What we know:
Blueprint: H1 2-26, H2 36-48, H3 53-60, H4 64-76, E1 80-84, E2 92-96, H5 98-122, H6 125-143
Antiparallel strand pairs: 1-2
Amino acid sequence: MNQQKDLQFITELRATINKLVKKLRKESPTGQIFSLTERSVMSALFQHKALLPSELAAMEMITNQSMSQVLNHLSEMGYIVRVPSETDKRKVNISLSEDGERIFMQFRHERDEWLQRAVAQVCTPEEQELLKQVIVPLSKLVDFK
């Protein structure tokens, strides 16, 4: 019986996190113009400054060919730049363009602003403290392989 309760908890946790992610996506008008993978790629580029397409594909767990399509679309919109590697001319480093950084910051700000308002309006101060404590275990889950 305990295993069934544990499974129910896991199902509820997953469903709630999925709903929150979808809600955050919906609450960012700017972010809606990008696919989930495009937003994730832009986030990785913002964090790491420059990456190889193969590194991005591995991070996103997609094929190099699929990543090529994502990068081509972001390039067409002017949100990334490709710079040949100084050490290996066959390789190209990908980074966000100025417009890419600007639009990334805009949709990140929209989501953060909405979440801040939501937490302030629907959570008690005690619940807000509990949310702060949950960040560490959720981060561990994200990093689990």
